[in-house]
Structure formats: C-alpha cells, structure tokens
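USER:
Try writing one entry.

ASSISTANT:
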Amino acid sequence: MSFERIAELRLRQAIEDGLLDDVPNRGERIDLDEYFATPEDVRVAYSILKNANCRPEEVEIRNAIAALERRRVHSASAGDRQITDQQIANLTLRLDLLRDRARRRS
C-alpha cells in the first residue's frame, strides 16, 4: 500500500473518531499564496524554522506590516494614520532591501 493511501486512511479515521474537531482554523481555506511565492530553494528551511518557532526576518517584517495595516484601519486621527503610514513605509523599504540582498546572493 502506498504512503499516500495510508496517510489518507489515517486522516479519514481521525476525522471519524473526532480527533480533528478542535483543530485551530477548522473549516477555513488554507492560503498557500505566500508559500508558493517563497523561492523553492528556501521553502524547506523556512518550514523548519517555522516549526521551531524561529521566523525569518522577512516573515517578522511582513507580520509587523500586516499588524500596522490593521491598526491604520482603526486609527481615529489623521496624525495616527500618518505615523502608521510612515512606519509601514519604513518596514516595506527594509523588506525590499532584504529581498534585493537575497536576489544578489542567488
């Protein structure tokens, strides 16, 4: 029996037994766009780092930008939005520089 078939049977059994009922984000679609946007040669390394709870600097910056964008939506004053926009611009520049450096290395 192939590995894929064994894995499928075990998953089905776990679903039937209710072992996957309390999985986080259950029923939500998995967004793999960022995964496939990551260069193939670093995907495995990033996965290992993620499982070890050690995120690459690029990921930390992306998360910070996303948090700032959420904060900007809920900002009450124009001054707060302007400060947040500047922080987003700074982080975006830093992310672009990291990507450029990575491209030069390869």
Summary: The first helix runs from residue 3 to 17. The chain has one domain: 3-105.
